[in-house]
Amino acid sequence: MCKALILLALTAFTPAVACADALPQHPQAETQALSLAEKAIAFRSVSGPGNQTPQVAELFRSALIAGGFRPGDITVTPFGDTAYMIARWPGADPSLKPLVISGHMDVVEAKPADWQRDPFSPVVENGYLFGRGATDMKLDAALVIASLIELKREGYTPRRDIVLALSGDEETAMETGKILADKLSDADLVLNGDVGVGILDEKTGKPAYYSWEGAEKTYADFRMTVTNPGGHSSEPRADNAIDRLAAALLRIQKYQFRPELNALSKSYFIHAAQFQPAKISAAMRAFATNPADKTAIATLSADPALIGKIGTTCVVTMINGGHALNALPQSASANINCRIFPGLPRSAIMAELRKAAADPDVHFSDVTQGSVETDASPMRPEFTQAVEQAMHTIHPGLPVFPGMTSGASDSMWFRSHHIPSYSVSPIFLKPSEDFSHGLNERTPVASIPPAIDFYLSLLPALSH
């Protein structure tokens, strides 16, 4: 009987998930992970009035203390309307740098009227855990906590400290993530449970491959502004602020940044190509061989899921202009949101945008908040071997390879301290069922048992 079926009593249907073992070995951890995730989802940990992230932190703190952590080793620190948490499991050798497990407790806003189910009333139905945070990332946090408690239950003693660091505003200002990275700047490496790509086959529902993330693109916002004296709308003239801004935006739309390749993305294209349709597969292999291949670039750029992996992307996300219905606009502005390839400075990208706009009267300013430029993390052998071994304990022979995410996470703050940070969420989803930040967010409960086993292998391997 598949280990995932231990949760069958909670569901009417269990998605197909391959299992390495025949019987459940960690039923307490598996049950606790689901229960903890449900309780956490019930808290509306959204930035703004009524933010319940501090309650999530206290929930997790109570669970860790009940599981054997010393109260003095866990701190929950208020910060504005949110909070962050640090839980330390002291190791046997204090001279060793700690292993940090990173994550966040907040979620993006969800309007109940838009959902089929209340986003903050967790429910298990048809084999899925529904609710805001089921994927990003309250279930992942619960999996880590349940795994740490299970290791204590089994009598494990780490050689180096294991530190669980959970931020409280990752989905907004990301200030607490920076605080945590500053406080834990002595870390050996960081495992981020926020991101990871475990892909289930769309037809069979079985695991197809697993990609851990060793780099992420830099988030940036640039404001474009055009101003002029304006005038009466009955006396139109060629110099119109909105028209000039629109023309510049169209020129930027046509501009393509130079395609880029690093060791992580090259490995991803080579290994992930086998799971793509023939045309995409050929383009991925060609790009990995020659990042200047125009045919490959055109094919990959046409796919929204892949264009972000071949270089910097910039897109207009907000516009504002004019001051009255019957007046020529005195100003017009737009926000350009960029996801910058690792290693490139924001200033260089803004200079490219200015050049692409081709209008000296369009003024640019960097209005980025809560972001920092970082390089990719190195592919450290002890990590790559440990993550591959851990994944093969639950899915023997499954392809495991590195990748790069187009989004931003708290990993950037640790990388800014030159600490290797790797995203390793062991949750597997079909690409069509990834509803992070979207409506009706859900995750298969069948992912829970193998995810526990994954952490029970990975954490000891990196904290010995």
Automatic annotation (TrEMBL):
GO terms for molecular function: metal ion binding; peptidase activity. One of its GO terms (biological process) is proteolysis. Residues 1-20 form the signal peptide. InterPro entries: Bact_exopeptidase_dim_dom, Pept_M20A, Peptidase_M20, Peptidase_M20_dimer. Pfam families: M20_dimer (PF07687), Peptidase_M20 (PF01546). Residues 215-360 form the Peptidase M20 dimerisation domain. Gene3D superfamilies: 1.10.150.900, 3.30.70.360, Zn peptidases. Coiled coil: none annotated. The keyword Hydrolase applies. Belongs to the peptidase M20A family. This is Peptidase M20.
